[in-house]
């Protein structure tokens, strides 16, 4: 069941306004390998060149170009008409994702820049527009093969290698304009507290200082039933209020919580009024759920949660990191559920907001993971920290996200096992994340060599269940670094020790059929029966190990040269889905 404010293809479904303009589609496009664009004022005189279909990058077939070679600079131009009736409003230009450094001009005037390929950003372009006529929007994007920029699974050499794929350069998520008033709601941070039946709203308002007669009204409903309505004086830019949802209304509280089994969502409407007249209206939603850790157990809504996750890199053959459609996102979620999983570890990618929306709606648990850099120096630290601090608040309100994963397998922190500087970096990111969100677990270095971490996660691609059970029969040996796993890796970095955290095997499996055109983990299998037997053996062994609180199988689909998915790149099952489901649910 969708939320009341759902709009198909709306780029930011958790903060919805009615007035917006979709800028996806055909744009003018040009490569700038000689770095001539700014000197030659392409923002004023765009060169005759190619067309590209935004938001697909030039490396993809879906873009209409399909050139996979790296180009360090690309330019975009879009002509757009702004209606005369919008002249009394502010026009906010939104980019959901541009990789890596973007500079923007409107009608020849520079309006701003942003660095970081995974976080959304926006510019107020109101002063630069012509209303009732044509406008020129130009974007220059600079990318690099530097390993100091967070790049995730994007290759930094000419060809694909190991588990690194064709790079992503330029606009790869939606571009849009929304029309807003000078006085408006800029953001709302929503924090559930199920133990007190409360929801806390932290409002950020713009244009309210020095104005009288402003009132902020909030209406909360559940399945069409009014739960609470309140009004506040909007006399400052930051307002915090806690709402007791069922203090007056009563009702079966536990049936209103969000979980994979019952993904209940409360609809909420925020209206800002001045002297009784509406000046802004935003639709949103929230889920009442709690993720916590007690006595070595992960709890969802104060009950033990066994996580059956699958690694999801979010690639498609024609469009790479960009989903080809909203329907494609829904199809992936439905197939993951059909295979008996209750969540995804979204790997090395900050996913489209619409994916998180549908996980909220359908009850899919999500581990949200930052794309890694692959060097450690001052520049890498600054770039990573700045972007991660943008990503966390942008995703904070999604109830589906139950774990933050800033680092994976010591990528970008390759000597963390003994390097105190890299260890301190991970500690700082842990504490910064906790400062912004103290309510979700943080996995500091997923897979091995943990420093401080709320969950101990282990990556192990051992092929047989028998070998797994033998290796993990002695929990103390694993958690106290007496036994190595996965190519001689250990659970903790030097100077750190196990403090009773829950344990999850957050990568395993990776089984591939025999082929010359790609790879998987371990020996390739020759038949469907061999695939199922190996899958069954290792999955059951993990489930039979009593101190393990969940697992994450590698992976949903094949990705380019990595052919170890349960589905092919075009989402066809390699073995019967019902068999995978039966093994997961048994």
Automatic annotation (TrEMBL):
Keyword Hydrolase: yes
Residue ranges crossing the lipid bilayer per the database entry: none
Superkingdom assignment: Bacteria
UniProt domain Glycosyl hydrolases family 2 sugar binding: residue ranges: 22-145
Coiled-coil ranges per UniProt: none
Domain (Glycoside hydrolase family 2 immunoglobulin-like beta-sandwich): residue spans on this chain: 183-289
Gene3D superfamilies, per database record: Galactose-binding domain-like, Glycosidases, Immunoglobulins
Pfam family, one: Glyco_hydro_2_N
InterPro entries: Beta-gal/glucu_dom_sf (IPR036156), Galactose-bd-like_sf (IPR008979), GH (IPR017853), GH2_Domain-Containing (IPR051913), Glyco_hydro_2_cat (IPR006103), Glyco_hydro_2_N (IPR006104), Ig-like_fold (IPR013783), Ig-like_GH2 (IPR006102)
Protein family membership: Belongs to the glycosyl hydrolase 2 family.
PANTHER family per the UniProt record, alphabetical: BETA-GALACTOSIDASE, HYDROLASE
Name of this chain's protein: Glycoside hydrolase family 2
Organism: Paenibacillus wynnii
